[in-house]
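Example record for the data management plan.
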Amino acid sequence: MKKVPFYSFLVTKTSLALAEVIYIMVITTFIYQKTESALIASMFPLFQAIANLVAGLLSPLIYIKFPFSKLFMSLPGFRAILLTLLLIGFEAIITHIYVLLIHVLIISFVGGLEKPILCSLIPKIVLKDDLVKANGSISVTSQSAQIAGYSFTGLSVLKFGHYPTLFFNIVLVWIAVLCIFITSKYIIENDEKVTENQSRWELMKEGWIFLWKNSTLRMVTLMDVIEGVAGSIWIGAITLVYVKEALNQGEQWWGFINASYYIGSIIGGLLTLLLAKLIQKHLIVSMAVGSLLFSLFTLIYGLTSIPILALLLCVAMGPAYQIRDVAQQTAFQINIESQHLPKVYASQGILLSLVTGFSIFLMGFISDMIGVRAVYILGSILIFISAVLSLSLIQVGKRKSFDGDLNL
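Corresponding structural encoding:
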């Protein structure tokens, strides 16, 4: 592992993970306090989703025009400038909520272009044998940053106000930009060339074509889609209903459940680092075992009425999820050339965003019509199906001679 570029990128991802949580909480709470309207406050994540969708659709046209290193540096820098302008003009902008929402829309669009670029960097600065360790390290630090953000941002807003908290957010973003500048010095360009007869439509389709034609990417994406549907069982509203109806506890247990899951995720990330070499050698087995354990723990969680057992299960789910997730990310990264990753990640992101939006509605409907326990039972079944599908990658690997990469 190249230590300087990796650790500078690790700081980048950690800073951005914390900054993103602070940004979301500051803007959401501010809009709600200003308007006292949950509907208008909900327009913030809606605008973010729309901007990310448009960015995902247009990103191939942008990625093909500019070298990776320029996009890697310029997109976070441009977003940092937009956030700084938001801070400078905060007093003026806050008097016009819709101006704020439009500014948020632009920032979210740039962020939507930036995310696939950042996700694609790891294979460019890390050797294949170190991918699990690298992905695990980023997972641990990002999860820890998010926990800190959710834990302290609300308190900071109450004690210091929106403006100082947003200022800290800007500091974090500029730290990330500085680290990106350091990392960019170690990137070796391997950009894709455009043939003269390629139309814009063909360029926009390329990410989807890679996802469909590459059987490994197709299967991993299908697993991600299924798990994306299942992942909606953990949204706040469903968890709150579960706490009240299944555990017969007060709202404070909602926080206990979330904290337990985050603690488990951190433990899982550390376990992934400890077992990095073993997971790297047995990616498919790691996916399957992680998914099977996650499915089992989710099923028991949905059926239990014992609060302490529910907390312990949340902690246990963390390692299962992290091992599965890191193994899937690594399998995805090693089965496509790095120059194609940004547009493939962009296409996958569009698909997962659409699935997540639909599944949130689906799980809410099932919870209301059948009961909250049915939601977790369905989630466990979907995760189990994903585990079974992961085993089919063994045959894919044998047919495509991926043994050297997947070490089946």
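Summary line stored alongside the record: The longest helix spans residues 3-35.
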